[in-house]
Amino acid sequence: MREMFDRIAGRYELLNALMSAGLNRIWNKKAVEATRLKPGERALDLACGTGSLTRDLARRVGPEGYVLGVDFSKEMIQAAKKRPAPNVEYRLGDATDLQGVEDGSFDAATIAYGARNIPDLDALFGELARAVRPGGKVVCLEIARPQGRFFATFYGLWFDRLVPWLGAKISGDAWAYSYLPHSVKEFVASGELAEIMRRNGLQDVTWRKFSGGIVTLYAGTKPG
Ligand SMILES: C[S@@+](CC[C@H](N)C(=O)[O-])C[C@H]1O[C@@H](n2cnc3c(N)ncnc32)[C@H](O)[C@@H]1O
Description:
Elements: H1 2-8, H2 12-19, H3 24-35, E1 42-46, H4 52-61, E2 66-71, H5 74-81, E3 88-92, E4 106-112, H6 121-131, E5 132-143, H7 149-171, H8 174-186, H9 190-199, E6 203-210, E7 215-221
Helix pairs in contact: 3-4, 6-9, 7-8
The chain binds S-adenosylmethionine.
C-alpha cells in the first residue's frame, strides 16, 4: 500500500482534480468547516498525502495556528513539502500508531480519503480521538457509492471505467487506479463507520453525503 502511494505521489493532485471534476475543492471546504477550528488553533491531518486538506486547514487557523500533516508515504510527504507554509509541519508516520503526538494536543483532527486504505479502523479512530482535546472535533471525508439509480449508473461509468483508464494514463500506475473503485466497494457502510467512531470515544457522530452521495463527511466530538 505504501509503495503504491509512493508511486502515484507525483501526479496525485492533478488526478484528484480531474477525477472529481474539481469537486474535491468543495468537499475539502466542507471538511474544514466541520472542524469548527478557530484562528490560532491546532489541527492534525492524518494520511495527509500531498497536503491538499492540510493547506486548507492551515488557512483556516491562520498564521497563529499550527497544522501537522502525517503520512506513511515518503514520496507523498516530499511532494507536500514542496509547498511549505510557516504554520504547517509534515511528518512521516503511521496513522494507526502516532509517535510524538500527545493526548489531547490538537483542537481538531481530520482524515480525507485515507480511512478506506487503512485496515485497522479502530486503531485509526482511537488515535484520532486520542489526539484531540475534550470538545475537539474528529472529521473524516471518504468516497462512497451513490444510492439513487441515476447517480449509480453515471458513477459506474465514471468511477469504474473512466477513472482506472485516466489514472493508468496519467500516473502510469494501472493497478493503483483499479484498486481505487475496488476499495470504495469494500469500505464499511456509513452506519458502521459511525459506530467505529463511537466505540473509539467520540460522541454526537453524524454523517452527511454530498454530490449525489459520492462523498461522505463524518464528524464526531470528543466528550468534554
Ligand atoms: C488517497 S490519499 C489521500 C491524501 C490526502 N488526505 C488528500 O486529501 O488528498 C491516501 C493517503 O493515505 C496514506 N496512508 C495510507 N495508510 C496510511 C497509514 N496507515 N498511515 C499514514 N498514512 C497512510 C497514503 O500514503 C496516502 O497518501
